[in-house]
Amino acid sequence: MITDGVISDMVQTKEAVVNASSLPLSIIIVGVGPAEFDAMEELDGDEVRVSSRGRLAERDIVQFVPFRDYIDRSGNQVLSMARLAKDVLAEIPDQLLSFMKSRGIEPRPALSSSPLPELHRHI
Predict the structure, then answer these.
(1) Alpha-carbon distances, residue 48 vs 22, 24, 45 (angstroms)
(2) Cα(32)–Cα(66) distance, rounded to whole angstroms?
(3) Separation between Cα atoms, residue 83 and residue 90, nearest integer Å
(4) Contact indicator for 40, 14 with CB cutoff of 8 Å
(5) Half-sphere exposure of 97 (CA within 13 A, CB side)
C-alpha cells in the first residue's frame, strides 16, 4: 500500500491487521510525503505487537517504510530504489516462516540428490 500517513479509521485498521495476522499474508506500506507516520509505525508492530479489543496479532505481518528516507540527494536513484526494495521486502521471509511454524507446516525434503539431467543443445 502507498499512503500519505493519514488513517481516519485506526480502530478498524488495527482490527483488520489483527484478524489478518492468522492468514498467509504480508502487508507492505510505503509512506509518501511530509506527514508524520506514527500510525504506520504502530501498525508495523516491530516494537509492540498490534492489538485490537484485547486481542494481540498472532504475528507481525506489516512492514512500513517512509519513502522520504530513500530519496538520494546526490542523484543516485538506482541505489536509493535498491535500498528501498531491500528494506520493503526485508521482513517477508520471517513473516512467511512465522506463518508456516504457527501451522506446523514443515518444508518437504529434497526430491532427489541425483545430478541434474544433461541438457542437449538444439541448433
Answers:
(1) 17, 21, 5
(2) 6
(3) 10
(4) no
(5) 5
Closest CA to 7 of 41, 47, 58: 41
Pairing of strands 27-31, 51-52: unpaired
Question: In angstroms, rounded to a whole number, what is the distance separating the alpha carbons of residues 101 and 95?
Answer: 10
What is the b/e burial string over 24-58, where b = at least 16 CB atoms within 10 angstroms of the residue's CB? eebbebbbeeeeebebbbbbbbeeeebebeeeebb
Q: How far apart are CA 39 and CA 114, in angstroms?
A: 52
pTM: 0.76
Phi, psi torsion values for 27, nearest 5 degrees: -115, 120
pLDDT in tens, 8-34: 899 999 999 999 999 999 999 999 888
